Write the C-alpha cells for this entry.
Amino acid sequence: MVQELVIAIVGAASAGALYMAAAAKVVKQYERGVVLRLGRLRNDVRGPGFTMVLPGIERLRKVNMQIVTMPVPAQDGITRDNVTVRVDAVIYFKVVDAASAVIQVEDYRFAVSQMAQTSLRSIIGKSDLDDLLSNREKLNQGLELMIDSPAVGWGVQIDRVEIKDVSLPETMKRSMARQAEADRERRARVINADAELQASKKLAEAAKEMSSQPAALQLRLLQTVVAVAAEKNSTLVLPFPVELLRFLERAQQPAQQQVRQPQQAVRPPQQPAQAQRPAQPQPSVAPAPPPASAPAVSSATAPARPPRPKPLARH
C-alpha cells in the first residue's frame, strides 16, 4: 500500500509539474500578452512578467510593442510632369493597441508594408520631379498621413516615414547636369560683371585722386614693383618715370609743327601747257617775219612757249 501511495503521489506531482510548465508563461518588458479563452478575447491584456494560462483552454499571443523599422521596396512610377522615377522609402511604426493588432488584422506587418507601397506609388503620381528632389519633407508628411489613416484601426501608430532615394534615368541626369552647369555659369558671369563694375568705379575714384597729386602715382608704381619682386620669380620689371614720358611728349610737339610748315609753303603758279593741235596742210607760202615793233619778252618773266610746227610744202 505504501509503495502504491508513493507511486501515486509521484505521478500526481509529475502531472502537476507538467501542467505548471504548460501553464506558466513569461511576457517580456517590451511585449504584451493577448489571451484568447476558447477563441474569445479576454479583456485583460497581460503585462510583462510571469503569467498563467489554462492549457488547452486559453491561448496567449505576444505582441511586440517596440518601434519597427520596415523598408519599403522601390516603386516605379510616373510623376505629374511625366518623368519616370524609382523611389524607395523606410517606415517606422509601433503597436499601441495589442488587442486590435491581433483581432482587427491578420498580419499587421504585412498590412502596413502593402499600405506603404500603395501610398508611395500614389504620392509619386501626385508630385512633380522637383518636389521629389527638393521638397521631401512635405512629401514625407503626406505619405505618413496616407498610411496612418487606415493603420489607426489596426492598433498601429505610424511614427515616421522617410523617402530614401529617387532614381532617375540617365538621360534625365545628363539634362539636369547641363541645366545646373548653365545656371552656375550664368551666376559666375553675373558675379564677375558686378565685380568689374565695382572695380571700375573704385579705379575711377583712385585715378581722380591721383590726378591732383602726381607723386601718388609714383608711390603706387613703387608699391607695384615691391609686390612683384616679392614673388621671387623670373619677371623683370623696369620702372619708367611718368614725368619723362610727358617731357618727351612736349618735346615732340614742336618738331611735328616744324615738319608741317615746309609742306604748307606756297608754290609758284604754273600755267597749263597748251594742247598741241595736229598740223593741218596749208599752201606753200613763206612765213611772214615777226614785226620789228614787237617788244622783246624777257625769258625770266614770260613762260616759254613750245615751237610751232613748220607747214609742209605742197607739191
User: Anything to note?
Assistant: The first strand starts at residue 24 and ends at 27.
